[in-house]
Amino acid sequence: MNTGKKNLVRTLESMDFLKMDRRTFLKAVGAVGATAFLGTYKTDIVSALEFAETKVVWLHGAECTGCSESLLNGGNPDIVQAISKLNVNLAYHETLLAQQGIFVDGKAANTSELNSEILVDELIEEGNYILVVEGAIANGPDGSGRYCVIGNRTFKELFAKAAKNANAILAVGTCAAYGGINCADSAVEEITDFRGVAFKKENGDKGMLQELGIHKPVINIPGCPAHPDWMLLTLGAVILGKIRIPEDLDSVLDSYGRPKVFFPPDHTVHENCPRRGYYDRGEFDTEISGDKCLWKLGCKAPYAHADCGMRKWNSGISMCTQAGSPCIACVEPGFPDSARPFYIEAEDKGILLGANIDTVSKVAVGAAALAAGVHAVRRMKGDE
Amino acid sequence: MVNVTVDPLTRIEGHLRLSTEVSEAGVITDAQTSGVLFRGFERFLQNQDPRDAALLVQRICGVCPTSHSLAAAGALDQLFGVADTIPKDALVARNINQGLNTLASHATHIYVLWGPDLANPAYRDVLTPLGDTGSAVWNELVGRFAPISYKLDGQPVPPGSSYLGAIPEKKRLQEAIAVIGGKMPHQVTSFPGGYTYKPTFADITKISSYYLQVMDFVSKYTLRVPFETWIENTYKASSPAKAVNFVLEHLRGLVDKSVVSNNFSREAGWGDAEFYTAFGSELVGETLLGLPASLKHDRHGGYSDPSKIAFLAYGAFYKPEAGDGYDPRSPEGARFQTSGVVTGNLEYQKFNPDLITESVAHAFYEGGELHPSKGETNPFTNPDDIRYDGGSDSRYSWIKAPRYGGIPAEVGPLARMLAMKEPLTTGLALAFKENGYSPANTYTRTIARIQELAIIANELVKWVTVDLDPNGKYAVHTDLSMAKDSEGMGLWEAPRGALGHWISTDSNSKVVTYQPVVPSTWNMSPRDGAGVPGPLEQALIGSKINAVENAAGVEYSNPVNILHIGRSYDPCIACAVHTIDLSGKNAPRTLKLV
Known about the structure:
The structure holds two protein chains of two kinds.
Chain A: H1 3-13, H2 22-32, H3 34-47, E1 54-60, H4 66-72, H5 79-85, E2 88-93, E3 102-104, E4 107-108, H6 116-126, E5 129-134, E6 137-138, E7 149-150, E8 153-154, H7 155-164, E9 168-172, H8 173-178, H9 189-192, E10 194-195, H10 208-212, E11 218-221, H11 228-239, H12 249-252, H13 276-280, H14 308-311, H15 346-349, E12 351-352, E13 355-356, H16 367-383
Parallel strand pairs in A: 1-2, 1-5, 5-9, 9-11
Antiparallel strand pairs in A: 3-4, 6-10, 7-8, 12-13
Helix pairs in contact in A: 2-3, 4-11
Chain B: E1 2-6, E2 16-22, E3 28-35, H1 53-56, H2 65-79, H3 88-114, H4 121-127, H5 132-145, E4 150-152, E5 155-157, H6 161-181, E6 190-191, E7 194-195, H7 201-222, H8 227-233, H9 240-258, H10 272-279, H11 282-288, E8 310-313, E9 316-318, E10 335-337, E11 340-343, E12 348-349, E13 356-359, E14 365-366, E15 378-379, E16 401-404, E17 409-410, H12 413-419, H13 423-434, H14 442-467, E18 487-494, E19 497-505, E20 511-517, H15 519-523, H16 535-540, H17 547-550, H18 560-568, H19 573-576
Parallel strand pairs in B: 8-17
Antiparallel strand pairs in B: 1-2, 2-3, 4-5, 6-7, 8-11, 9-10, 11-12, 13-16, 14-15, 18-19, 19-20
């Protein structure tokens, strides 16, 4: 390794990558490779041994448990390492905990060792926890929240109670962050009225917190599901004090509340796509099961702000476009409507992530994405 | 009478409420299962490009996304008119994707979701007074199956060895799916006409390598008898009796070695499967093997009236030897796991998809009893009407009540194993029936899941190493115009049971109706128009609520049998509660806010 590179690695090791500016980030990634770069921070986490216990209360609303499944796919740190090394007390998690709600003649029975409803109330009472939310929060019908009732109370009510006493909130998955698939346009969407924690789709005034009038710092970790690294590294950064809450949030999060390091405003999945070479040569697949660029099969990678191309999925094995399926931009606040129809090119729709293509630069779709889009139009016109 | 309600039933997918009436003797006399979330899920497919369905509907469930995606792909294959030409290699790739998903889902269920109940303190209270054997059994239960963040009497209990060991294996299986499916959860390769990814020779090596590592776990933790020996003498046994006898002989050998020393450890040959097969059942453990105690899981979760229950399988996994294409109606014998219907008395019938209806008489929807392709439903919109405490005569769930020929049906591993006449499961079911037990019970449901894991692991090797051809063809041509004014039905099996998706389109190839009927809708269904309870409700009614048949007396506040029975179906409520139809006639439906 040359001296320049060694210095850079040393700088990186002492650096707080979540606070790194975009220029340094990309330079660093280019110089040492994404794996080494991301590994730096992971080692930091795994080697950190002595921490005060951090309590995590993980609530499930309208969800598919895909983000919890994804969490269990984490590697280095994996979930067990994260819990033991970072001294995380995963105090409440509906899919993993031993307890369940038990009511005898309508009254909560037994103790918190067996009864999850008593447990969650005790934890909320004690306070001093990080609240993780998976799934959207039903506001309907008619603001009652009764489309989701767990343990004799609406999830809206439980969320409100838990949010009030939380130190900070992590909204994991596109459902918790923005409503996700629960908020897709449909004949019943207005009635179900699902909300993300601090957003409803792109709208930052319509999150459940705003609806309830609660003010809490929120970090959004979207994705359908969220990548385990995004979840565990963010949780780790908060516990390690790498992100101070709330002081640092403005600088490390984008306008949709996402950590910029994982969801870079000026970097899209397209830029590191394994099929990028075909795009540059103007070679496109028009039927499935080919090897070439998926643009003509509707790929939305140029509009998806995530590091999937560098990080890949399931311990770096593959990703959507590598497996021949167009990116559906599942990390974007308008998902899935902003990416539909999945198999038709974005230009053909005339709509880009819910915004008209002419005004697209006004929203947080970066200049690079726009350039990529324009580039593609030009290329395709020439091609046809 | 005391009302004992479990809400939420945790360690399942989604949110489920089980409400029971319990007598002074600790016996359940009435029960309601309630899905407590309404998502209105498929509505958003209406008027959209049908091709989006395969990626979108798998977001119903993060545990079995492959199944939903492949049921959708099946419905789309028929919609586009290409089901009979799908290349064999694409069908093999779908098999591998599903096979790995089923293994991951079953392993997660057995070890992470279902297993922790075996470390419930109720077993300590019953077993330890029985002396050294009882204490040794309790130590194995808590030492293997305790979950994370667990406490007993205020003292932290470390996670069980099997529990901890299983988590990396589940992860490994997900990684194997990523090799052939792009990522997991929510793999990305299902598409009408075939499979988006063309696997490479390196992929075969990679999947094989993951597979070997997982089987290493199986041989160390789950099954101590060599895997091939087990398959040869159970799944491939020439009769159900021979399969059962092999298992009994194997267990007798272990009992002879261990009963004096009270050493029931894995090192002494007691894999998790052997341990549970012996100690889980009164008939197997106490009556046939002469053990001093058992958990008596065969005494609960059964059906008291065989005329009110059936076992239903749609069939799954294409047969590679049949070549290109498949019949969407899944006729008997056409899939590796066949379609079929088995009555409550264990009589066999052919499966006919036209006999499926759905009732909303006890669910929060307006409407009648119709075939899923014609289903019409309006969700309740008045908050005051959404109540869960009205009892069995009221409406109490967002889950609809599907019926087969008018009868509730259990779906899942037990139904599939019976439909395919798997010798061990069939032999055990017959043995229970002959000895006055319900052939379906918490124990057989669990054994069937473990056995299915073994069978699919066995078949997967062939799909990966023999059938998968990197030089093969993975798709036939489709374009949107082929989906005009069409219909499709995708019949498949999710890990937790029979899964069907129905779709229809208009003259612009846009979706008119999309209707999935999912496994947990069958198993967790409420009463139908005739007041007949759903399978889980029937399984609860008549069961005792406390551990080992209330051996330590009646304790309403720790109804461990309700937990076992409920979780034995591997409920997936996100799946079950999305059910709302997309009827073209009323679309977009006018919904009144009362």
